[in-house]
Amino acid sequence: MKFLPSIFLMVSTIFMVNVSARVWDYMEGNQVRWSPYCSFPSSGGSDIAVVSVPSYRCGRECLNNWGCTHFTARRSTCTLKRNEDSWTEVFSATEECGFIPGRSNQSIEPRKPSTDKK
């Protein structure tokens, strides 16, 4: 019974790591990565266009605009962004975000998202 707390702690740690890692989903023939509940915050001229389309079409809009590397969607507002480096997404209860692999140094590996709230 002495080992029970250690086993519980180990299992809890593994569960927490798996739950908190952002896993990017695929769309548009695997050309776009996206995830719910996130945003790429605007900074220093990173927004290149705002398009009125349903959020599920935002990835396609970014893909069709060669200057777009990342996007953030909220309802019918799609904000196309450009950042050739890797960008840390932040949690957003009302938005989804994504990026085009190969247009930036954005990692496609699952990782723990920032806990900063928007």
The total count of strands amounts to 7
Q: What is the C-alpha radius of gyration, as a whole number of Å?
A: 17 Å
Output the CATH topology: Hepatocyte Growth Factor
The helix/strand order is HEEEHEEEE
Distance between the termini: 44 Å
Form type: globular
User: Which range does the strand content fall in?
Assistant: 25-35%
CATH level-1 class: Alpha Beta
Task: Enumerate how many helices there are, as a single number.
Answer: 2
Second rung of CATH, namely the architecture? 3-Layer(bba) Sandwich
Structural class: alpha+beta
Instruction: List segments where confidence is low: pLDDT < 50 over at least 5 consecutive residues.
Output: 13-20
Summed over residues and divided by their number, the pLDDT gives a mean of 81
Estimate nothing, just give the exact number of structural domains: 1
Name some characteristics of this structure:
118 residues; alpha+beta; Hepatocyte Growth Factor; seven-stranded mixed sheet; 2 helices; globular; Apple domain-containing protein; signal
What this model shows, in words?
This protein is an alpha+beta fold. It has one domain (23-117): Hepatocyte Growth Factor, CATH 3.50.4. It has helices at 4-20, 58-64; strands spanning 25-27, 32-39, 47-52, 70-74, 77-81, 90-99, 114-117. Strands 1, 2, 3, 4, 5, 6 and 7 form a seven-stranded mixed β-sheet that branches. The longest helix is centred in the N-terminal third of the chain and has 17 residues, at 4-20. It is globular. 25% of the residues are buried. Residues 13-20 have low confidence and may be disordered.
